[in-house]
Amino acid sequence: MSLTLHKTSLEPTTIQEAMRFSEILASSTMVPRDFQGKPGNVLVAIQWGREVGLGPLQALQNIAVINGRPSIWGDAALALVRGHPDCVSVQEGAEGEGEARHGWCEVTRRGEAPQRRTFSIADAKRAGLWGKSGPWTQYPDRMLQLRARGFAIRDVFPDALRGVLTREEAEDTPPEPRHVENLAAAVAPAPAPAARPASEPLPLIDPNAKEHSIATVELWHRAAQKAIGLLAHDPAALRAWADANVGTFGAVKERYPDSVKSILASVAEILEAITEQEEAE
Length: 281
Description:
Blueprint lengths: L3 E3 L2 E3 L3 H12 L12 H14 L3 H7 E4 L2 E4 L1 H9 L4 E9 L6 E8 L5 E6 H6 L8 H4 L1 H17 L1 H4 L3 E2 H5 L11 H5 L14 E4 L5 E4 L2 H15 L3 H10 L1 H8 L3 H24 L1
Parallel strand pairs: 4-8
Antiparallel strand pairs: 1-2, 3-4, 5-6, 6-7, 9-10
Helix pairs in contact: 1-2, 2-3, 4-7, 11-14, 12-14, 13-14
């Protein structure tokens, strides 16, 4: 493997090098715990880092996947914005009293008016964040400021962050609900017609005008197809057999309409074919 030296860091230049590089980093204990033993995650984080301008090790320290979306630590996002050639200034802080207390961030881009974003205690309460265990309880002003920062820098410098959320915002955003289709139900075959018990036999008249009582629809369908096959050469006899079974077809159709439709379609197809042949002759 030959890695290319870019300034002060090693960066892979081919997919093979990237995969090997990721395996080496994943086996190290000097990367964040979430990446240890997970070369695939390492590779994705490095690629996301390249998208926004972070080196491989910077990406592993500052890129995280929260609720299925890539995110970046607020300080790293701020560094990317400050390093942008069009960044004039980024100012931020916290001020106000009571529920009106808020974090604020004002960002100025070259050639544009300054833009200011705020995030108040009232906003945090509406979002279910205020009083939440962890940083929102330990460092409330800092969290208000970080939320305001995330909105401001993403609005003014989307080209620097490429749509990546700040980690602080991503952690506070609930995962989107996913609708999962019941594929088993979608592809499950229609149940086969239940076998009719002998106490409810299905009637059928054979080509010899003899009436039969058949136990199941499968056997009934098979017997009807056999009769059609025997009479296929004699259209008059086939018509007579179909006419003789009008009553039985009606009785069976109430229970198994598809089977009767199939039999009648077979009769019609044979008669049509014979008619066409006679006309041709």
